[in-house]
Amino acid sequence: GESVGLHLPTLSVQEGDNSIINCAYSNSASDYFIWYKQESGKGPQFIIDIRSNMDKRQGQRVTVLLNKTVKHLSLQIAATQPGDSAVYFCAETPYSTLTFGKGTMLLVSP
Amino acid sequence: DTEVTQTPKHLVMGMTNKKSLKCEQHMGHRAMYWYKQKAKKPPELMFVYSYEKLSINESVPSRFSPECPNSSLLNLHLHALQPEDSALYLCASSRDRGNEKLFFGSGTQLSVL
């Protein structure tokens, strides 16, 4: 389940489940969105992006959905694996500068 | 080569020291960035260079001084830092400034004593 603590929201799932990570973005002027994965001690790693003229984009095991009406972005990970455990950030580009959301920690248990 | 390389990986410095962080990319990218990240927080933009010229300074204190010697290199010079400046400093690059994906290095974990 999902919990929101004092710091980073955390989503705990079982291996093999599908995960959905949500993000509310702030700026209606944003027209490009990216999901990044950050493992401990590493820099953010690109997962998937979507432009504002689309509402869905699929990659390998990942899907990003964009709802501009309510300024909401989600990342779906199919058949989640322990290696997917990390912090996931959505990022938006209002005025051509990448701005990160707060992040969600995904914990995958075997 | 799709890597952004940052050195050093770890740095401990006193408040009177001067040090530099280095970043290198060989992807032919024309935009380079410095971000600062505190634990359990998202990265925050500090500086943007586009075609080797500083295009954005997000009101960063002058004790942080960026430099872009050429299109592949980005430095961040540090002087008279405060303990609250301790953080992970991330370098990134993109093909151009604008709506492009950023490639990040692994960062320099900085501790100011």
DSSP, total strands of chain A: 11
Distance between the termini of chain B: 36 Å
| Number of H- or I-type helical stretches of chain A | 0
Mean pLDDT of chain B: 95
Unreliable stretches covering 5 or more consecutive residues of chain A: 2-6
This entry's quaternary arrangement is heterodimer
Content of β-strand of chain A: over 45%
Give the averaged pLDDT of chain A, no decimals: 92
List its salient traits:
heterodimer, A: 110 residues, mainly beta, 7-stranded mixed sheet, 52% strand, globular, disordered N terminus, B: 113 residues, 4-stranded antiparallel sheet, 57% strand
Describe the structure.
The complex is a heterodimer of chains A (110) and B (113). Chain A is an all-beta fold and 110 residues long. In chain A, 0% of the residues lie in helices and 52% in strands. Chain A is built from no helices and eleven strands. In chain A, strands 1, 2, 4, 5, 9, 10 and 11 form a seven-stranded mixed β-sheet that branches. Chain A is globular, with a radius of gyration of 13 Å. Chain A starts with a strand and ends with a strand. The N terminus of chain A is likely disordered. In chain B, 0% of the residues lie in helices and 57% in strands. In chain B, strands 2, 4, 5, 6, 9, 10 and 11 form a seven-stranded mixed β-sheet that branches. Chain B is globular, with a radius of gyration of 13 Å. Chain B starts with a strand and ends with a strand. The relative contact order of chain B is 0.34. The interface between A and B is medium-sized, with 24 and 24 residues.
List the helices and strands and how they pair.
The complex is a heterodimer of chains A (110) and B (113).
Chain A: E1 2-3, E2 10-14, E3 19-24, E4 32-38, E5 45-51, E6 56-58, E7 62-67, E8 72-77, E9 86-92, E10 99-100, E11 104-109
Parallel strand pairs in A: 2-11
Antiparallel strand pairs in A: 1-2, 3-8, 4-5, 4-9, 6-7, 7-8, 9-10, 9-11
Chain B: E1 4-7, E2 10-13, E3 18-25, E4 31-37, E5 44-50, E6 53-57, E7 64-70, E8 73-79, E9 87-94, E10 103-104, E11 108-112
Parallel strand pairs in B: 2-11
Antiparallel strand pairs in B: 1-3, 3-8, 4-5, 4-9, 5-6, 7-8, 9-10, 9-11
